[in-house]
Amino acid sequence: MAASRFASLAAMAAAAAASTTTYSYADAPSYRFNPFAQSPTPSQSPQSGSEPSNTEPKPEVEDSKGGFDPEALERGAKALREINSNPYSKQVFEVMRKQEEARLAELAAEKAHQEAIQAQLAIQQQRKLAEDQMNLVEKQSQVKAQMLRYEDELARKRMQTDHEAQRQHNAELARMQEESLIRKEQARRVTEEQIQAQQRQTEKERAEIERETIRVKAMAEAEGRAHEAKLTEDHNRRMLVERVNGEKEKWLAAINTTFGHIEGGVRMLLTDRSKLVMTVGGVTALAAGVYTTREGARVLWGYVNRILGQPSLIRESSMEKFPWSGIATRATQKIRNYSSGKSSSLKDKSKFGNIVLHPSLQKRIEHLAKATANTKSHQAPFRNMLFYGPPGTGKTLVAREIARKSGLDYAMMTGGDVAPLGAQAVTKIHEIFDWSNKSKRGLLLFIDEADAFLCERNSTHMSEAQRSALNALLFRTGDQSRDVVLVLATNRPGDLDSAITDRIDDVIEFPLPQEDERFKLLKLYLQKYLHEEDDNNESKWKSLFKTKTKKIVIKELSDDIIREAAKKTKGFSGREIAKLMASVQAAVYGRPDCDLDSELFMEVVDYKVGEHQQRIELANS
To answer: Compositional bias (Low complexity) spans (predicted)?
Structure first.
């Protein structure tokens, strides 16, 4: 009961406070009501239960524009009086005070929140100002950098302009200097040409004077010799006429005597018929015998040559043309080797001849020679070979060395000899292979310029005879042979028939010699054409029948000079190097003292190099 009453009093106080505040105006005087003021105690009031005294302050009320409602004020005053008279007024005012403190705390919190918001806004404003300041500074730095770049670009352009102007000025100066030098050079050349023209004119006049002097002198000498010759000729003519007359008389006498004897014999034959018949028969028999003997000997020689002799297509061979020929030569050679103490059999097989090749190529050739020798010793089929490369690179020499080192006989033919034979080419090809069977050691058949008759059979330039010769060779080489090693050499391997290339087992390229090979070839042919030639000239037997020649003296020809010549002779084949050294030998023999020095050697080398270049230009044109 008391609690409900307390709550109602609190509500009334709140309503009174609300009413007092509801009707206050902004422009009216402030009306303050302190709800926490203590009510007068009973001792203070004059009468208990009586109405409040007149000492309670009354609000000052003034009329405003909207008017004033006194009822609300009365209701508030009444509520205050009830509160003051209520025993729970302290509790009510305490609650109101706490509510007011709570409201003030909320206002303070709201104020702190507003202040925090204002501080955050201030911080944001400061941040924004700082960002604006930074953006301004950055823009200023960018503008400054752009200004610096622009100034740098202007300075660079100005420098380029200055440099270009200086370059043009320098170019103009250089051009002027060059023109001045050209004018000076032209003036110098004109002066030199004038001097040379005057010298040539002087030399020409001098030569004319000398020629005229020589001509007059020669005419005088010729007239003297002619007069002397005329006198001598007259004397000789008289002597000759006398001799001719004597000989004439002698021959006339001999002719008269001979015809006299003939006349006597003819008269005797004409008078005796039996002697005439015997004489005519004897002369006829003698003529028939001579003719029969000549034709029979020709037929017999052809038969013997076909059976025992060497085929006509073979140009060179280690086999003798006839079995009995060369016996004396071989015996003489063996006696000479024995007397000189040469063990040629072992030495020749260990040495690879006077052939200079690239080390890899030489190693392969030696391997082929050993393989061929072992194939022969084991009676296995031989392998056919194809050598190709520029002319003069040693293909023929290598084939001969392979035959020598492998113990085979050697025979060489040329493809160009087959085409002129026509229809007989087939027979000649078969004769070669039949003749090869006579070799007891086996035969290495080397065909040089093989593309001359072994070209592609589809070629329009190939005759029927060449086609038949090619078919004959293909027939004889269809199977691998144990008697013949076929070695083909050509400068154009692409022109060979496919059936021929199918019969080839080893293909070897012979390139042009490199610098080291050319150096070795130059030293080899220098030894051959200059040193060995002197040794041959100084042999004892030749010195008995020939006049003694001067010995070639080599001066200041070192390996460095030969190396320089090897560098200059790039593109030379082995044959061209041999011809070069033969030209050096001829140049040495053209000198009266037969001396060879570096100057003469390099002069011949330069001449041959120029000749080689000219030959290449003529071939390419």
So the answer is: 38-53
Please give the angle made by the CA atoms of 442, 445 and 447, to the nearest 5 degrees.
175
Spatial distance between the Cα atoms of 607 and 603, rounded to a whole number of angstroms:
6
CB 601 within 8 A of CB 565: yes
User: DSSP E strands: which ranges in 14-156?
Assistant: none
Residue 384 near residue 503 (C-beta atoms within 8 A)? yes
Instruction: Report phi then psi at 444, rounded to 5.
Output: -100, 110
Q: Which residues contact 516 (CB under 8 A, 6 or more apart)?
A: 566
Closest CA to 512 of 576, 436, 434: 576
3-state secondary structure of 506: strand
Q: At what angle do helices 574-589 and 515-526 cross, to 10 degrees?
A: 40
CA–CA dist 383, 423 (Å, integer): 30
CA distance 213 to 218: 8
pLDDT of residue 25: 38
Instruction: Report how far residue 537's alpha carbon sits from residue 551's, in angstroms, rounded to the nearest whole number.
Output: 9
The token duo for 538 is: 């100084």
CA–CA gap between residue 64 and residue 28 (Å, rounded): 7
Which residues are paired to 506 by β-bridges? Answer: 385
User: What whole-number distance in Å separates Cα of residue 264 and Cα of residue 268?
Assistant: 6
22 DSSP β-pair partners: none
Q: 490 has which bridge partners? A: 388
Please list the ranges in the chain whose pLDDT falls under 70: 1-68, 301-309, 320-354, 459-460, 532-550
C-alpha angle 280-281-285 in degrees, rounded to nearest 5: 120
Cβ atoms 534, 551 nearer than 8 A: yes
CA–CA separation, 14 and 98 (whole Å): 13
Short-list 609, 592, 601, CA closest to 562:
601
Number of Cβ within 10 Å of residue 6's Cβ equals 17
Task: Give SS3 for 367.
Answer: helix
Which token pair is 309? 């002799």
Tell me the per-residue pLDDT of 312-356, one tens digit each, with 9 for 90 and over.
888 888 876 655 554 555 555 556 555 444 444 444 444 555 688
Classified as helix, coil or strand, 48 is coil
Give residue 343's pLDDT.
Answer: 44
Provide the angle, in degrees to the nearest 10, between the axes of the packed helices 598-620 and 574-589: 130
Specify whether the CB–CB gap between 419 and 466 falls below 8 A: yes
Beta strands 506-509; 385-388: pairing state: parallel
